[in-house]
Amino acid sequence: MSVAMQDVMKQSGVAFGTSGARGLVSAMTDRVCYVYARSFIKYCEASYKCERTIAIAGDLRPSTERILKSLVQAGADANWKVIYCGRIPSPAIAMYGIDKHLPTIMVTGSHIPADRNGIKFNHPNGEITKADEQGIVSQSVDFDEALFDDKGMLKAAPELPAVEAEAEANYCKRYPDFFGSDALHGLTIGVYQHSAVGRDIVVKVLESLGATVKPFGRSDVFVPVDTEAIRKEDEELAREFTHKDYVDAVFSTDGDSDRPLLADDVGMWLRGDVLGILAAQSLGIKRIATPVSCNTSLEKSGSFEKICRTRIGSPYVIAGMESLVDANDKSLTVAGYEANGGFLLETDLTLDGRTLKALPTRDALLPMIAVMVMVCKERMCVVDLLRKLPKRFTVSDRLKEFPTEKSKAKLAEIREKNLGEKLFGALAAKPSKFAKDKTFQGKIVSLNEVDGYRMEFDSGDIIHLRPSGNAPEFRCYVETEGKERSAELLANCLKIMEGWRK
Q1: DSSP three-state, residue 481
Q2: Beta strand pairing status for 126-127 and 116-123?
Q3: At what angle do helices 365-378 and 166-179 cross, to 10 degrees?
Q4: What are the two backbone dihedrals, phi and then psi, of residue 250, each rounded to the nearest 5 degrees?
Q5: Which of 449, 344, 341 is nearest to 396 (CA)?
Q6: Alpha helices by DSSP H, 50-160
Q7: CB neighbours (10 Å) of residue 18?
Q8: Handedness of CA 228, 229, 234, 235 (dihedral sign)
Q9: How far apart are CA 309 and CA 248, in angstroms?
Q10: Are 429 and 439 in contact, with CB atoms under 8 Å apart?
Q11: How far apart are CA 429 and CA 12, in angstroms?
Q12: What is the CA radius of gyration of the chain?
């Protein structure tokens, strides 16, 4: 029979977000995942000159193995060879595909809970773009419906092929080959492992760079660590660990190990957009692409020759990076980062005759290693590096189980009725300098609708509202000149947003 990808998406509810196709595990049947994979393969056949081979990998979620098997079946039925690279980080499988000029698929739901999962696609040159996404969802696939039972599950799922270890090995070599085997000599680094797919790889890489490593917090149950909305228990765990054990920093990642979490020596996690600035400074990056939600210390630092602000999501950051490349001047190095900490390298870097190849997809290890290399070189601690940045503090959180259509409708109402100042102006106001007990309604001086609704007030406070692209969540980003003020403003904004559930 023949089925259109568009129809499968509508019927299942499993659609593309900012990081691939995601949905409830119950909706991501073998049949749905199979059709997604066949559509991707068919698109690659038509759009990219590559051999009929695809590489796959996955994270540590309970549902991942079943989905991987549906991809193996899809590859076999398309007469493609399937290489299974095991349970490795998303950047590792993407790098393998780029090196071999092969399309790749990563089965992961990243940071979202275990009752959901996802499929992330990379074409032979890297992460798919929005144009690629449209090409994939426009495909129709012919297949044998008898493969599946009435619940959409394979009647006879294939075994996974033997693991091809080269993808993991090359990813682990990437960092010591560039920074050197003693780049982190003398440092002691804790690794919060939880259920991250790269938990052992992070330890291996840090040791290969000369660091002393102390792993902790390993879990056999999937832990939904969101690097943009860090859980209270993860904050407490990092503080408790650093109080018991001396370390210079703590490393961790999200579920598929493409988004980093770096904490200082007292267990305080850094915001991903601040980590991105420090990493780019350490690596000598000249031009930066980053979403509108990221900390404005980037511009205020004066460290970068050119900056491109984009919509939220790695495909948009990739497009922004591409716009910054100067083919005639390779010294104008280009990178990008997101508020979740994911760091993307668009151009090659050279250091003491060694080259770090471009990897234009989110990577968790590079930014954390780069910051700790700077710690070693400047003989400072992480906190000292933070103090050198302009004083701007970003925080974010989200309302869970908030339907995407409902959040979009609320933003449309705010936009059409100009409700920004009415709803949030009093929160973003500051006390008058001339009358101690008086405050004045905050006025919006800049409005950015590139992605969501981002309001900058005359007080310097920034409030940004946006529906999540990956889950039914309504996100709020806040930036002010003080840590406590940012936290207070965020809490008050969320109280207002909570009232929109009705």
Answers
A1: coil
A2: antiparallel
A3: 20
A4: -125, 130
A5: 341
A6: 64-77, 90-100, 130-137
A7: 19
A8: positive
A9: 32
A10: yes
A11: 45
A12: 23
Look at the block and give the residue holding tokens 């009929």: 52
Q: What's the CA gap between 408 and 287, in Å, rounded?
A: 32
Q: What's the chain's average pLDDT? A: 94
Dist. CA 94–CA 366, nearest whole Å:
15
Q: Which residues contact 346 (CB under 8 A, 6 or more apart)?
A: 289, 318, 321, 322, 324, 325, 334, 335, 336, 358, 360
Distance of CA 180 to the CA centre of its chain: 27
145-181: pLDDT as tens digits: 999 999 999 999 999 999 999 999 999 999 999 999 9
Per-residue CA distances from 265 to 27, 163, 190, 319, 377 (Å): 42, 37, 9, 36, 17
Strand partners, 447: 455
Amino acid letter at 258? D
Q: Who's near 485: CB < 8 A, 6+ residues apart?
A: 393, 461
The answer to whether 99 touches 170, Cβ cutoff 8 Å, is yes
Q: Are 62 and 114 in contact, with CB atoms under 8 Å apart? A: yes
Q: Decide if 22 contacts 471 (C-beta within 8 A).
A: yes
**pTM (2 decimals)?**
0.90
421 torsion bin: left (phi>0), alpha (psi -120 to 50), beta (else):
alpha
Q: Could you give the count of Cα atoms lying within 13 Å of 470 in the half-sphere of its Cβ?
A: 20
The closest alpha carbon to 230, from 490, 49, 408, belongs to 490
Tokens 């270890």 correspond to 165
Structure-block tokens of residue 250 = 């703590």
Name the residue type at position 331. S
Cβ–Cβ contacts within 10 Å for residue 378, how many? 12
Split at pLDDT 50, 70, 90, the class of 434 is very low
Q: Which residues contact 244 (CB under 8 A, 6 or more apart)?
A: none
Q: Which neighbouring-strand residues pair with 105?
A: 56, 121
Do the Cβ atoms of 325 and 286 come closer than 8 Å? no
Among the listed ranges 174-178, 228-232, 479-483, which one has the minimum average pLDDT value?
Answer: 228-232
Q: 3-state SS of 257-320?
A: CCCEEEECCCCCECCHHHHHHHHHHHHCCCEEEEECCCCCHHHHCCCCCEEEEECCCHHHHHHH
Would you please indicate which residues are annotated as catalytic (active-site) residues? 110
Q: How many CB atoms lie within 10 A of CB 290?
A: 27
Of 172, 200, 18, the C-alpha closest to 110 is 18
